[in-house]
Write a structure and sequence with these properties.
365 residues, alpha/beta, Rossmann fold, five-stranded parallel sheet, 16 helices, globular, binds zinc ion
Length: 365
């Protein structure tokens, strides 16, 4: 059966399995839902199944076609995702090499997200033109052509309009699967051309169980990973590669310097964090988890960062309830601002500056 290894998502699985077994897959799907809950894994499985050479009801992962698709090199499989768009030819070549390396890693660890550092990324009109050209031919090797576009909300307006034309007159041998965690950011005309399949947030027990059982995490770290990732298995797995505990310790240090009024240390740490594109969001998540522990300590509740209990208890005693509520709000506000592309440095400063009463630094955006 399809999706046997995909955790949770019973409704999405049921819809897609039924369409698959009854041979009435929609030509264009939009898988939407939070980050890291299985949208892309489900899409890849369906795409493998489309051209698998075995006669089984799920992809065999052994045949030539399955191998090529899983390695992102099948000529009938087109994979688009937000990426940088360098202008010089030598930068383009470097980027192509970089992407090819990332895809090799992704073949072994499909949850990996592309990491382009601080470079801005998008799906551009050139990407769509290239896709259009490649879709002009009949399938080379497979029965069908498959197009996977992840992070589809990152299409530029020009790209989205060009893509809409492709969706409006699709070749009957092509299937499209788009994924997004922000369906509201898509053109309504694109939304209306796709069958929408919702992917739900995962239950925390399921994420912890999978981290321990399928990915060999120690149960204590698995709990922390699940919590910090907002129960997103994909994000939790990415965090395991990023030395989670060191990042958490940095968040504690940041908080300490903020509370102690050590502005210089605080700003220096923030500058360093803000240089790396993925980090500000992660540190804000950690700050939020640490402050939430401080709140729990006030009512003698169980805390997540139990290994830092003594230090956090001490810190908690120095912050009163009202200040703590302000910090919770400031961090939440900073996370929302960051999602809206407010300057990461400003977001972090604003989250940490609560103790100095400067939490309104980002309200003007
Ligand atoms: Zn196969």
């Amino acid at each position: 059966m399809l999706f046997e290894n995909l955790i949770g998502q019973s409704v999405a699985k049921k819809i897609l399995r039924q369409a698959w077994t009854e041979d009435r897959l929609a030509q264009s799907y939009l898988f939407y839902g939070p980050d890291g809950v299985g949208k892309e894994l489900a899409a890849m499985e369906l795409i493998l199944a489309l051209n698998c050479q075995s006669q089984s009801d799920q992809p065999c992962r052994q045949c030539n076609s399955c191998h090529k698709t899983a390695a992102y090199i099948h000529p009938d499989f087109h994979y688009l995702f937000p990426r940088p768009h360098p202008s010089s030819d030598s930068d383009k070549r470097k980027l192509a090499e970089e992407i090819s390396e990332m895809l090799k890693e992704k073949e072994a660890q499909p949850h990996l997200a592309f990491n382009f550092g601080s470079r801005p990324t998008a799906i551009s009109i050139d990407d769509i033109r290239e896709l259009q050209e490649r879709l002009g031919f009949l399938p080379y090797e497979g029965k069908r052509k498959a197009v996977l576009i992840t992070g589809v909300e990152a299409m530029t307006t020009e790209a989205a309009n060009a893509f809409l034309k492709i969706l409006e007159e699709p070749s009957p041998t092509t299937n499209f699967i788009l994924t997004t965690d922000r369906p509201n950011a898509l053109l309504p005309t694109i939304l209306s051309r796709c069958q929408k399949v919702r992917f739900e947030p995962l239950p925390q027990e399921a994420v912890i169980k999978s981290l321990v059982k399928d990915h060999g995490q120690n149960p204590r770290v698995a709990g922390l990973l699940a919590e910090l990732s907002g129960n997103s298995l994909g994000r939790a797995l990415q965090m395991t590669d990023q030395d989670l505990l060191a990042e958490r310790d940095l968040a504690v240090k940041l908080l300490l310097s903020a509370v102690n009024g050590q502005q210089w240390e605080m700003v220096e740490a923030i500058d360093q964090i803000a240089r790396d594109r993925g980090r500000p969001a992660r540190i804000l998540e950690m700050l939020s988890a640490v402050v939430s522990d401080l709140v729990h300590l006030k009512v003698a509740g169980k805390i997540l960062n139990a290994d830092r209990q003594a230090e956090l208890s001490d810190l908690g005693k120095r912050i009163d309830q009202q200040k703590l509520s302000e910090m919770v709000r400031a961090i939440e506000k900073a996370r929302i601002a960051l999602e809206r592309n407010v300057n990461p440095r400003l977001c972090l400063l604003s989250a940490c500056n609560t103790t100095q009463g400067e939490q309104d630094a980002i309200t003007s955006d």
